[in-house]
Amino acid sequence: MTAPVLEVSGLAVRYGKIEALHKAAIKVGAGQIVSVIGPNGAGKSTLLNAVMGALPVTGHASGRVAYMGEEIGALPIERRVARGMCLVPEKRELFASMTVEDNLVLGAYRRKRAGERNFLDQLEPVFALFPRLKERRAQAAGTLSGGERQMLAVGRALMGKPDLLMLDEPSLGLAPLIVKEIFHIISALRQTGVATLLIEQNARAALQISDYGYVLETGDLALEGAADDLAQNPRVIETYLGLAKKPV
Ligand SMILES: Nc1ncnc2c1ncn2[C@@H]1O[C@H](COP(=O)(O)OP(=O)(O)OP(=O)(O)O)[C@@H](O)[C@H]1O
Ligand SMILES: [Mg+2]
Q1: Is 4:197 a contact under the CB 8 Å cutoff?
Q2: Can you give the residue ranges of every domain in the chain?
């Protein structure tokens, strides 16, 4: 059996004296969509940043992070990117004054530098996934709507042809229809073989497209299971899927 794409165990992260994540263990298999849901401040972004090696200098991680069966805890972020890991952070970090197309081309920069001749081969597939980006290819990224900006951030990540795509709250601040559109696209990415680790507060949308899910609460993984089972779990329904609006 081949190793999972990502396997994290005993991962703890502290910022100074405060431990924001306690002994987390998660697994993402090839071609899977796995989501981590949980409220504000639970440690979701901390988990993703630790996996990517992108914690702020004040953050310290311990535990094991294995990618494709190999421990990578000591690898700098550039090496993780070079091996096919990609994080779309909460702050999307687009180049506002550059066009949509130039932002996408930058997403392939690593492949270009690695000498790949066909480093732009994902441009048309990305435009096919996101026709709105194709229509706006010459528009400055800074003038895009929130939903379009989110599409651009995901599209730019795909230009690097990642094996593991990590998305930090792709639905943040978006209207329900756009959320639906984005999640539909994330779900469609499964066909490309990419493994996706999805962090979300929108539990309903996330579990609908996921194979497996984890619930993170104040630094601890409180629940886990097949996404369909989690969506039926009374506690998940009450806290995350109920009629009540998510806590602000
Ligand atoms: N650089 C930092 N220094 C100190 N504490 C931090 C730092 N970054 C995050 N924290 C704390 O760690 C905890 C987890 O934060 P994190 O950003 O991982 O939560 P989150 O689940 O992503 O929340 P949200 O849904 O609001 O994005 C919070 O209590 C936060 O205040
Ligand atoms: Mg966060």
Answers
A1: no
A2: 6-241
Count of residues for the chain? 248
Going from the Cα of 41 to the center of ligand 1, the distance in angstroms, rounded, reads 5
At 86, the amino acid letter reads C
CATH of 6-241 among 3.30.470.20, 3.50.50.60, 3.40.50.300, 3.30.70.260: 3.40.50.300
Q: Which numbered ligand comes closest to the C-alpha of 40?
A: 1
pLDDT at 92: 79
Strands 164-168 and 6-15: unpaired
pLDDT number for residue 91 = 81
Q: What is the DSSP letter of 99?
A: B
pLDDT beneath 50, residues of the chain: 244-245, 248
How does pLDDT run across 97-150, given as a tens digit for each residue?
A: 999 999 999 999 999 999 999 999 999 999 999 999 999 999 999 999 999 999
Ligand 1 neighbours, Cβ below 6 Å, are 15, 20, 38, 40-46, 56, 58-59, 90, 201
Which numbered atom of ligand 1 lies nearest the CA of 201? Answer: 25
Q: How far apart are the first and last CA of the chain?
A: 43
Going by alpha carbons, the residue nearest to atom 17 of ligand 1 is 45
Q: What are phi and psi of 37, to 5 degrees?
A: -110, 160
Q: Distance between CA 24 and CA 87 in Å, rounded?
A: 19
